[in-house]
């Protein structure tokens, strides 16, 4: 099995590589950024990608976005996503195509070596593997227009509801205004608010937030 690892934490990245190699799994490439993940998968004809959800430059969902892009171009490519926290929106988006060969585990599960290696093999074999905590929260999470938003997008929407401008939101979240603009565009799309909607999209987004809060 040929595996590519995308993880910005050097210790965890090298630890994952050593763990997989110790099990006879061929780690063909490692990277600390999500930008080149797709190229590495193609160049090495990888059988599986192990991907951190939050990666540079914004540490929000770059890894997830890269994983989803890879799945769009290679629907049968197995992806095992690792996250430090339960992020139901990102888990739901990854699982949305229903094609299998995906996994979503909390990073703390890596310490349970046998379970982690079993998950690697199951995802590579076409199965879906969910961390028990992720599965529990997905089951409990009520259906809502806000359910599709990432945690960062919800943070941005909450600050929009407080009347903050993009520059103020950027300062509070310690990211660039460009990143905030991107998050706002994404949450507009996910809430189904289009440019030709009657009314101001920021106002409509805030009204949706207040109704569902």
Brief write-up:
The protein is of the alpha/beta class and 213 residues long.
Describe the structure.
By secondary structure, this protein is of the alpha/beta class. The chain has two domains: 139 residues, Rossmann fold (3-Layer(aba) Sandwich); 68 residues, Winged helix-like DNA-binding domain superfamily/Winged helix DNA-binding domain (Arc Repressor Mutant, subunit A, Orthogonal Bundle), CATH 1.10.10. It is 50% helix and 14% strand. It has ten helices and six strands; from the N terminus they run E-H-E-H-E-H-E-H-E-H-E-H-H-H-H-H. The mean pLDDT is 86. It has a six-stranded parallel sheet, sandwiched between helices.
In whole angstroms, the N-to-C terminal distance is: 45 Å
General shape: elongated
**Low-confidence region ranges:** none
The helix/strand class is: alpha/beta
Question: What is the level 1 CATH name of the largest domain?
Answer: Alpha Beta
Number of domains: 2
Mind describing the biggest β-sheet? 6 strands, parallel
Keywords: DNA-binding, Phosphoprotein, Transcription, Transcription regulation
GO molecular function, one term: DNA binding
Domain Response regulatory: 2-122
Modified residues (4-aspartylphosphate): 52
